[in-house]
Amino acid sequence: MKILGIIPARFASSRFPGKPLVDMLGQTMIQRVYNQVKKSKCLTQLVVATDDKRIFDHVKSFGGNVCITAENHPSGTDRCFEALSLQNEKFDFAINIQGDEPFIDPNQIDLLCSSINMQTELATLIQKISALEQLLSVGEAKVVINSEQEAIYFSRSPIPFVQKTEQKNWLNTATFYRHVGLYAYRADVLEKITKLSPSLLEKAESLEQLRWIENGFKIKTVETEMEESICIDTPEDLQKALEILKSSKIS
C-alpha cells in the first residue's frame, strides 16, 4: 500500500502571515515539520503543498519535495487532493499533516497509517479527554464513536451530554474524546469529498468532517495516548515553542 504524506503550507494567515517561513533557532517552521515527518516509517513519499513561490523555493533549498497548488482552496483537504493529483505516481492513501506543528510525533503518523487498509474510506486520531477545561473548550472538536470505532458526530460542544450530573463531574461518569487533526484519505474517497457542497451541520459547527458524515462516508477513529503536539497559530504560540526548543535537545 502506497501512502503519500502531504503538508499543506499557505503563506497567508489571518493570525500569523508567513508563519511557515518563521525562524525557529536556525530552521524555519516548515523545515522542522518536514524533518519530523520524514522520521515516519510508513509514508511512501512526502510532499509540501503550497500556494506561494517563497515557500516552494525554500523547501527546494533544503532538499524537500514540494508542489505549487492553487491559492483559492477553501480547505486543506482540497489542497491535499490537488497535491495528490500532481504526483507522477499513484498512491492508495494520502495523509493530511498539519504544517504548523514543528514537534509532531512521527509515531502518530505511523499509528494512523498502520490502522488503514483498502476498505478504509477515511481515518483520523482521537484522544481521551482528561481535563474539564479541554472538554468545555469550543476550540476543541469532540467526537463520539460507535461500536466499530467509527465517528458518529463531531462537535465543539461537550458530547455526550450527561443527564442528572453536574458538569464538573462529567469526566468521572462518562468517556469523552477529542479529535487529533491528522487525516488519512483513500485516494478515490478524497476525490469524492472535494466535490461535496458544504453541509448544514458543517456550517453550524465549522467542522469540515461533518460534511463527510452527512454524505454517508465512514471515518475510522484510532485512539492515541501520545503527547499532544504544539500547534503554532499566533506569534505568542511561536514564543512558547521557542522556549521549548531552547530548553530541550531538539535539533
Structure overview:
This protein has helices spanning 29-37, 53-61, 76-85, 106-114, 132-136, 170-173, 187-193, 200-205, 209-214, 235-246; strands spanning 3-9, 23-24, 27-28, 45-50, 66-68, 93-96, 122-128, 142-145, 151-155, 177-186, 219-223. The protein has 251 residues and is α/β, with parallel strands linked by helices. The strands form 2 sheets. Strands 1, 4, 5, 6, 7, 8, 9, 10 and 11 form a 9-stranded mixed β-sheet that branches. Strands 2-3 form a two-stranded antiparallel ribbon. It is globular and about 60 Å long. It starts with a strand and ends in a 5-residue tail after the last helix. 36% of the residues are buried. The model has no long low-confidence stretch (mean pLDDT 94).
Summarize the model shown.
By secondary structure, this protein is an alpha/beta fold. The protein is built from 10 helices and 11 strands.
CATH topology: Spore Coat Polysaccharide Biosynthesis Protein SpsA, Chain A
Radius of gyration: 18 Å
- How many distinct beta strands? 11
CATH class: Alpha Beta
Mean pLDDT across residues = 94
Given helix and strand content, the structural type is alpha/beta
Please tell me the CATH architecture by its name: Alpha-Beta Complex
The low-confidence parts are: none
Order of helices and strands: EEEHEHEHEHEHEEHEHHHEH
CATH superfamily: Spore Coat Polysaccharide Biosynthesis Protein SpsA, Chain A
Number of domains: 1
Cα(first) to Cα(last) distance is 32 Å
Strand content: 15-25%
Q: What overall geometry do the principal axes of the alpha carbons give? A: globular
Output the number of helix runs.
Answer: 10
Profile the largest sheet: 9 strands, mixed
Percent helix: 25-40%
